[in-house]
Amino acid sequence: MKAELLVSTETLAARLGDPDWIVFDTRHDLAWPDKGREAWQAAHVPGAYFMHLDQDLSGPKTGKNGRHPLPPIPDFAARMNRCGVAPGRQVVVYDDGGGSFAVRLWWMLRWLGHDRVALLDGGFAAWKRENRPLDAAVPPPREGRFEPRPAAGMTVDAGGVAALLGDPAAKIVDARAATRFMGENETLDPVAGHIPGSHNRFWQHNLGYDGRFLTPEELRAEFLEELDGVSPERVVHSCGSGVTACHNLFAMELAGLAGSRLYPGSWSEWCADPARPVATGPK
Questions:
Q1: What pTM was estimated for this model as a whole?
Q2: For labelling alongside 98, which of 79, 118, 204, 250 has CA 20 to 30 A away?
Q3: Which CATH architecture is the domain 6-129 placed in?
Q4: Answer CATH for 158-270 from 3.40.47.10, 3.40.250.10, 3.40.1380.10, 3.40.50.10950
Q5: Residues 29 and 55 sit within 8 Å (Cβ to Cβ)
Q6: Per-residue pLDDT at 185
Q7: Percent of the chain with pLDDT over 90
């Protein structure tokens, strides 16, 4: 059976306490790194484990590998196993930012071979708005059987991105806000701009006014227009540090356009090397 990509608040509420369902809270704020953990400590979906973007879902920074490099696989696997992740168990991830951080954990689990992982549609905002159960208890450790199996072909490094520059049969999709993409209002990285030839699709365009994802049909129509004949397998997703890039990748999967790849280092890695080209403006 094909794994579901989205789980509704109704479905998750009915599964609270099910030992075969594992829930993760990934709330985060780039400007206030402790905010997500503090919010989780105050109230979270009952049984939800907390994963910190910087400490749990990222690895050591060298100054050349971006702001959120992927963590060492054994370290990540150990964290998942302490939370009970195992084959056949359903994982649900959420945040309070439209899925912009939860997609990182979704993508990592998929990359490492655990397909039964879904986003909570509407996230914590919808859960709280609907007055669903909340808890402040720290869930106890559980025994997992997660064995990471990195999938080939799901990532592209800086050299691979450089090889795509000028290729009309490939497309680099940048998930940042338009102003940062154009090289304006850069507040996170030392160099403003984007990878030359890349196409901008702000990740929030994947959501409706209620914070839930657009329908697969709506997403498919929008992505097909933006890809303009480029096949999904030739699409590479980027952003500031490889996090919200996963949002566009997720949306393409939801739209039935599977096979696109992630540039984990993204702009923060790309611009760390002054020899790499930089573009500004709308495209």
A1: 0.97
A2: 79
A3: 3-Layer(aba) Sandwich (3.40)
A4: 3.40.250.10
A5: no
A6: 87
A7: 98
Tokens of 53: 């973007």
pLDDT tens readout for residues 80-108: 999 999 999 999 999 999 999 999 999 99
Does residue 1 have a pLDDT over 50? Answer: no
Taking the mean position of all CA atoms in its chain, how far away is CA 100? 6
Q: Where are the domains of the chain?
A: 6-129, 158-270
Pick from 16, 212, 34, 28: which is nearest to 129 by CA?
Answer: 212
Q: What is the pLDDT of residue 3?
A: 76
Token pair of 9 as six digits? 């608040």
Task: Tell me if 265 sits within 8 A of 240, measured CB to CB.
Answer: no
List, by residue number, the catalytic residues: 239
Instruction: Write a three-state SS string for the chain.
Output: CCCCCEECHHHHHHHCCCCCEEEEECCCCCCCCCHHHHHHHHCECCCCEECCCCCCCCCCCCCCCCCCCCCCHHHHHHHHHHECCCCCCEEEEECCCCCCCHHHHHHHHHHCCCCCEEEECCHHHHHHHCCCCCECCCCCCECCCCCCCCCCCCECCHHHHHHHCCCCCCEEEECCCHHHHCCCCCCCCCCCCECCCCEECCHHHHECCCCCECCHHHHHHHHHHHHCCCCHHHEEEECCCCCCHHHHHHHHHHCCCCCCEECCCHHHHHCCCCCCCCECCCC
Query: Which residue do the tokens 């993760």 mark?
Result: 24
